[in-house]
Amino acid sequence: MTLRGVRRSAHVLGVASGSAALVLGLAGSALACNIKDFSAEAKCDGDKGVIVVTDTDASAKDATVSVFLKGVGGVETKVGEQPVTGSKEGARITFSEDWKPSATYRIHVKAGNIVDEDVQPDLVTPSTACKAESESPKPTASATPSPASSPSSSPSESAPAQPATPAPSASESSSAPAGTSQNAPSPAAGESNLAETGANSNTGLIAGVAALLVVAGGGAVWFGMRRRGASRNG
């Protein structure tokens, strides 16, 4: 086998191996857990506030999410900590937090030795707080008029003896029924999402393609050596 044949066979094998490494590298980068796979949102569950964190990590790595309330002067208060397993569709976890308008929260994610970062930017809550949708109406006052009376007349002392005819007294009273009102609060109840888990990976298919490329390179080397041997025998 000549030096030229060895170089050609090595070149073919190198191309095949390089292609396989490139495919595996791209696949690993696409499936690796990343801080960009996490997002946070402040929502309302009825008249209570909640913070929902979503993990769209397709590699389904286990992670731990911590939520901190950022106060004045850099003082932080830990709201809670929950585990989550990512999925391509998005796994969600919910933190019960009666947040105030325009408050700032820091969301920290730790996934083994891969991710140990904060979600950027920090979560800022809406300018309007969660509250009930209806209010109780005020009752109306009732009016009760006082009765009116008419004066009675008495007979004169200088008149002759005659039967006196006194004027009857009359009284009237009226009242209006008191108005009533009914309170009908109807608080609205929102929905809370539970955490979803799942996984999706094409690593098996990619590894199979890489193996085929390596076999093809080896076959090219063997074919070149056999052809060179046949040339010498001829």
TrEMBL record:
The chain crosses the membrane at residues 205-225. Residues 127-199 are annotated as: Disordered. Residues 137-178 have a biased composition (Low complexity). This is LPXTG cell wall anchor domain-containing protein. Residues 1-32 form the signal peptide. PROSITE patterns: PROKAR_LIPOPROTEIN. Keywords: Membrane, Signal, Transmembrane, Transmembrane helix. NCBIfam families: LPXTG_anchor, strep_LAETG.
